[in-house]
Amino acid sequence: MNPEILKNKEDTLKLIVEKLGCAPNSFSKQFAIIRQKRKQHHTWLAAGVLLLLRYNKYPDTMAGSEGEFVFQLIKRSASVPQGGDLSCPGGILETPIDGLFCGLIEQGFPPIIKGDALTYARKRGEDELKTMTLFLANATRESWEEIGLNPFDLIFLGPLPCFSLTLFTKTIFPLVGLMNGETGICPNGEVDKIIEIPLISFFDEKNYAIYSLDASGDFYDIPDRQWDFPCLIHHDTDGTEEILWGATFSIIMTFLNIVFDFEFSDIHPTRIIRRALDQSYITGDSR
User: Fold this and answer.
1) DSSP labels for 210-247?
2) Predicted TM-score (pTM) of this structure
3) Does domain 3-283 match CATH 3.90.79.10?
4) Among 96, 202, 216, 236, which has the highest number of CB atoms less than 10 A from its own CB?
């Protein structure tokens, strides 16, 4: 990927909308499968999440570029499942309220889906557009609850392929959005802090490592075992070293592959970061 394209905000956004708009996707088919599972009395959750991009302008003192794109993620608090993980804001679909909000978005209030992104979405057909808008409503509502995201500051850029979790009976429906306003972010108790990772960081091999997880015997009723996952290391502004791995890492890798033809197979991390997991990772610390 030629990093020069990232220096132009409008060219980058145009590329993102075009690539996401033309990429194969089938929210409606996957959601139909989940509904069928429920009819057969299988518990299976559906969740919409927002992969949020923000364009941060540089101070006037920094010459040579106007700014940079960052992914705006949340760090989950210790009181919720998967505490400490970096993730996209979003959560479980709540059909009645998300259905009502979906209807408002379809009417253009708030005007989240518009322009070329709307044109590409319509080309996918009525069922796909309807399902996509439902999960966009779901993810936007959850993002408002978690971080105070103003729906009027959000611009839909396109969908990403669904992602099913290994340790949870849940399928994630990711959607990419641009935060285009200056409204402040206000995290709730489920969020420890907001993490902004520059998009350009993902194209630097030295930022990657292997995340080696040791699970105790009582972890999700499985024997002792170890998992190794690729991860990205981010040095946050407060001096902490944050680790991006798991579903959110995979969602961003998919985004990079679709938009920039980035292949993670070309990365060969050598650093290993170890972490022990216990049952509280699944249940959250309710103390």
Assistant:
1) EEEEEE-TTGGG--SEEEEEEEEEEE-TTS-EEEE-HH
2) 0.93
3) yes
4) 202
